[in-house]
Amino acid sequence: MIIQIQRILGFAIDFKRHVKQVNETTDHSFTILIFNVYQYNEKYEEVAKMLEEKDADVVLLVEVDQKWQDALEHLPYPHIVDVAKDNTYGMLLLSKFPYSDFEIRYIVEKDVPSVMAKIDINGSLIRIYGIHPKPPVPGENESSYPKDLEVTLLAREISKEPHPHTIVAGDLNDVPWSQNSKFFIKHSELKDPRIGRGLFGTFPSYFPIKIPLDHVFCSSDFGVIDIQKLPSSGSDHHPLLIRFAIL
After folding, report:
1. What's the pLDDT tens digit per position in 90-147?
2. CA distance 94 to 72
3. What is the average per-residue pLDDT within 152-173?
4. Pairing, β 79-83 against β 29-36
5. Does residue 12 surpass a pLDDT of 90?
6. Segments of 29-138 assigned E as strands
7. Is the model's pTM score more than 0.70?
8. At residue 130, what are phi and psi to the nearest 5 degrees?
9. Domain 28-246, CATH homologous superfamily name and number
C-alpha cells in the first residue's frame, strides 16, 4: 500500500516535471484531445458540441462505431483516419493539419486496431500513435497478455525507429505506475507530461476517485503549455486536452 501511494504521489504538482513547461503559444504549438467516448453513450450532440468548442488541432477518439462516425462527420476536420468498429475498439483520428503518411495497424489482435500518422504542423513533422489495447475481460479475455504485448511491441518499435516529435496517445487500460507502463516509458524513452502537474484521473467518470487510464506520452522535444481534464459528456471516461509546444 505504501509503495502504491508513493507511485501515485509522483504525479503530485510539487514533484519535478518530466516535460518542460512552456508559457507561450507559437506557430509551433498545437492542441491534442483524446477521448474514449464510450460506444454506447448516446450523447452525440453534446460530444460534438464539446469538440467544436475546444477546437483541438488533433483529436483521437476511441470506442467509435458507425453511429459515432456519422454523428461527428460534420466536424471541421479535413484530414481523417476512420476505423469505426462495433466491438468497442473503433478509432477516429481527426486533424486540421495534413497527414504526410498514415497506417491502420493490427499489432496483436485482428479485431483491435491502432493508428500511426505523421502530421505536418506548420513545417514540423510529428508522429502520432493512437492505441486502445484490449484489457482482461472476465469470461472473454482473462489475461492481460494481449494488452501488455501491444504496448511492449510499440515501445520496441519506437526505440528501433526513433523519430523526433513522437506522441503515443489513447486509452491504454492501464495506470502509468504499472510495471508494463514503466517498461513502455523506459524503452520508448517517451515522457509523461502529467508527472509534476497532477494525476488527471479519467476513469470511471461517475465515481469520485478516478484512475488515469487515458494517456498522452511524448518525446523530449515537446514542451507543455497546458493540460485539462474535461467533462465526460455521458462517457465513463473524461477527455484530456493538452496544448504542446514543439521545441
Report:
1. 999 999 999 999 999 999 999 999 999 999 999 999 999 999 999 887 767 778 999 9
2. 10
3. 96
4. unpaired
5. no
6. 29-36, 58-62, 79-83, 91-95, 99-105, 114-121, 124-131
7. yes
8. -110, 125
9. Endonuclease/exonuclease/phosphatase (3.60.10.10)
